[in-house]
UniProtKB/TrEMBL annotation:
InterPro entries (UniProt xref): MethylDNA_cys_MeTrfase_DNA-bd, MethylDNA_cys_MeTrfase_DNAb, MethylG_MeTrfase_N, MGMT_N_sf, WH-like_DNA-bd_sf
Residue span, Methylguanine DNA methyltransferase ribonuclease-like domain: 28-100
Gene3D superfamilies named among the record's database cross-references: Methylated DNA-protein cysteine methyltransferase domain (3.30.160.70), Winged helix-like DNA-binding domain superfamily/Winged helix DNA-binding domain (1.10.10.10)
Record key words, sorted: DNA damage, Methyltransferase, Transferase
Organism superkingdom: Bacteria
E.C. no: 2.1.1.63
Signal sequence region: none
CDD domains noted in UniProt: ATase
Gene Ontology molecular function: any one: methylated-DNA-[protein]-cysteine S-methyltransferase activity
Protein name as it appears in the record: Methylated-DNA-[protein]-cysteine S-methyltransferase
Domain Methylated-DNA-[protein]-cysteine S-methyltransferase DNA binding: 105-180
Lineage: Bacteria, Bacillati, Actinomycetota, Actinomycetes, Streptosporangiales
Gene Ontology BP terms: DNA repair; methylation
Length: 180
């Protein structure tokens, strides 16, 4: 979706949209090694780096985050630069702040733990479950990781024994190859 298409979508769907006003939530896309990712940034940080389509992310942002949602390349550029550096193996740790408000409280806890898993290493759902005091909750841990709204940046791909990955098996394998 181009910036013009997004602008047209916003004019029709957002009661609060005002052309020229900086959005509360900046949205756009990133084309890279994994294909298209939908990005969104709030004042707190990256709230979405997702394999889902733009309309789904826009709807979720409008419902959960609220405020004016719209294009703002200037606010997305730092995230795009870090993704470029990560995919070219020049970046091992993202420095852009993360805003996990699209995740459930349970998922937030798990996603924060995955951010502590070092580049090039991995953990398991059993380890994460044990660390939060729920060693039998393997399916709940896997489901929470699969709902990661900030994929790649919040490295749920480093949890290797899951049945699925939000971007699919090909994306998961590519991320693991990048990290060696």
């Amino acid at each position: 979706m181009s910036a013009g298409d997004l602008e047209a979508l916003l004019r029709v769907t957002s009661a609060t949209y005002r052309a020229g006003r900086p959005p509360d939530v900046a949205v756009g896309t990133y084309e890279g090694a994994l294909g298209r990712l939908v990005l969104a940034v709030t004042a707190k940080g990256v709230v979405a780096c997702s394999f889902e389509d733009e309309h789904t992310i826009f709807e979720r942002l409008t419902r959960v985050v609220g405020g004016l949602v719209g294009p703002d390349a200037r606010r997305l550029d730092p995230v795009r630069r870090e993704l470029d550096a990560y995919f070219s193996r020049r970046l091992r740790a993202f420095t852009t702040p993360v805003d996990l408000q699209l995740a459930t409280p349970f998922a937030r806890t798990l996603l924060q733990m995955t951010m502590a898993v070092p580049y090039g290493t991995s953990t398991t759902t059993a380890d994460l479950g044990a660390r939060i005091g729920r060693p039998q909750a393997l399916r709940a841990v896997g489901n929470a990781l699969n709902a990661n709204p900030v994929c790649v940046i919040v490295p749920c791909h480093r949890v290797r024994d899951r049945e699925s990955y939000p971007g699919g098996t090909t994306a998961l394998e590519r991320l693991l190859r990048i990290e060696g």
